[in-house]
Amino acid sequence: MTHNFNLSALREYDIRGIVGQTIDETDAWAIGRSFGSILRRRGGNRVALGYDGRLTSPLLAAALTRGLTQTGCNVIEVGLGPTPMLYYAEAELPVDAGIQVTGSHNPAEYNGFKMVMNRASFFGEDIQLLGRVAAAGDWESGEGEIISHDIEDAYLDRLLQGLSFKPHRMAWDAGNGAAGRIIERLAEVLPGEHHLLYTAIDGRFPNHHPDPTEEHNLADLQKLVAGKELEFGFAFDGDGDRIGAVDSLGRVVWGDQLLSILAEPVLQRHPGATIIGDVKASQALYDRLAELGAQPLMWKTGHSLIKTKMKETGSPLAGEMSGHIFFGDRWYGFDDAIYAALRSIEAIDMLGGSLTALKSAMPSMVNTPEMRFDVDADRKFAVIDEVLQRLEESGADVDRTDGARVSARNGWWLLRASNTQEVLVARAEAPDQETLKLLLKDIDEQLEASGVKRAEAVH
Asked: Taking the complete model, does pTM exceed 0.90, yes or no?
């Protein structure tokens, strides 16, 4: 027997698709057979398994478990919870790998699988190998056991280990995502006054889409903070690995801005350390890191790529514009938005106690949101190559880390190909609106020269 996946589901960092269209229970079973076979061949046989709150997650988790046990792997079920809780299980339990069934920040009809093996991300070529193993039906056989292991208490204890907090009046928006129960439990033990939104785990996401990188999804949090005159608030995506933040004035503290706040206490412990941001982050972040004595490193977007680079450089802290924050300092190096929230409270305390003051002190730059526009799969990377060639011929100041990031007009613009969707991603930042318009014109000219219109953008 063999199995062929819908190729669109085999992403760079995970496996993901629309349930019933591009991914189903048979796919989940085949992922179990293939992942388990690869693990067995690499000398392991114990897999921690968790799942998020989507309506389809229990069915996919059951099919995945069937596939894994049929390869002779033992499955340690840690149950419903955020993706970071599964990462914690993989880091702390005597297991060789971990899989979380999750659709991450995607709409309710999506679901998928995030994987780790031998304490490292399972992505890129590993995922392509998984597809080839399934297509060949090249599976190991055996009879594995299923073991239940409730890890929530241990995870909660570990989140709080070594941290101390002053009381704050604050808000938490779990977005009906998988972090909800942990947030409720934290609010019971943390000092101060805690106002909770949407902590009931509900895979239909009835209140708003669980993606804090889009400001309209933070509207209820902003309203709560304003209405109760709170100090700040945090929001989380569907599986708890992306964080959003707002200050007392309702201003969004974006991922790169949060990273610049978190960096200061970390650098007190690790002077001169490498701190990593992604190519979408503001130049203000890299300038601030240099000012604090760090070695700033701009790296490719993507949680697996960032985690791998952290290990390579020994970095104690990294982050992405999308709200993935990675702590190597006092943590495991994986992205955990709940832990990032706790470290943010600690950092705010250390830096004077006011997130609003910290936000106000940041350089005033104007920038675009992340702009996405559709492009044919066979043109996605070709367009970037064409843009890079033209920029090189023109003598532009280009960073090629991940696509094209061009420094110009006292600002910068970025154009890169998404690794997870058939889209190009653009972003620009400038000292004022007029300059921003000129940078967007630069992007438009490059796209037009390759036959793409920014007017097709989907935000």
From this structure: yes
